[in-house]
Amino acid sequence: MAVLMIAAVPLLFHLVILTTRQTPIGLSLLGVFKLSFVTVSAVAHWSLYSSLLATFALTLRRGRMPLITTMASRLHGPLTEEMIRYTRRVTIAWSVFFMAQLVTSVSLFCFAPLTAWSFFVNVLDIPLVASMFAGEYAVRRCVLRNPPRHSLSMIVRMVSQCMHEGSATAAPPREAPRS
Fold it and tell me: Which of 32, 36, 38, 4 is nearest to 18 (CA)?
């Protein structure tokens, strides 16, 4: 049900914006209605991606453990140097993705038709995130010698635990013993 709502609400917002594309945003009742959908879409999208960018990018500062490294060490225990390097790069990749989402969204909002911006924000958002996950998974399988395996339930449990404990301040993981 939650997944359906996550997909249905943005599609509804896009449909409202699309069907009112000839309605100017103004003081008319329909204009104010359209403005509310545009505002909610913009604020939600920009707030989400600004927060995610800050959360991921701030963990890349000197003396901090990258967020994906923290998550991987929680899932798998001590990490090898290869995994520490890889998870840092994945944290960078997600930070770049979040920045690209923000820049594209703001650029479309300012310079493209409202329907193009709405399509990007309300329709393409979830497929782009899913593509990023799939791309990272494919790269992981090609780049790492022995890529870790984990279930979706393990990841959800770990993310929940990290959110409750403020994991970004944790000490860096130690290297796993070499055999």
Answer: 38
Interval 120-133: pLDDT, tens:
999 999 999 999 99
Query: Which residues face 95 on adjacent strands?
Result: none
pLDDT band per the 50, 70, 90 thresholds, residue 11:
confident
User: Do the Cβ atoms of 101 and 49 come closer than 8 Å?
Assistant: yes
Helix spans in the chain (H): 2-19, 29-58, 67-76, 81-111, 114-118, 125-143, 152-165
172 close to 59: Cβ distance less than 8 angstroms: no
From CA 13, how far away is CA 40, in angstroms rounded? 9
Predicted model pTM: 0.78
Distance CA 133, CA 104 (A): 19
**In which region does residue 147 sit, left (phi positive, over 0), alpha (psi from -120 to 50) or beta (all else)?**
beta
175 secondary structure, DSSP code? B
Query: 175 is written with which tokens?
Result: 């290297």
Task: Compute the Cα dihedral for 143, 144, 147, 148 and give only its sign.
Answer: negative
pLDDT score for 168: 47
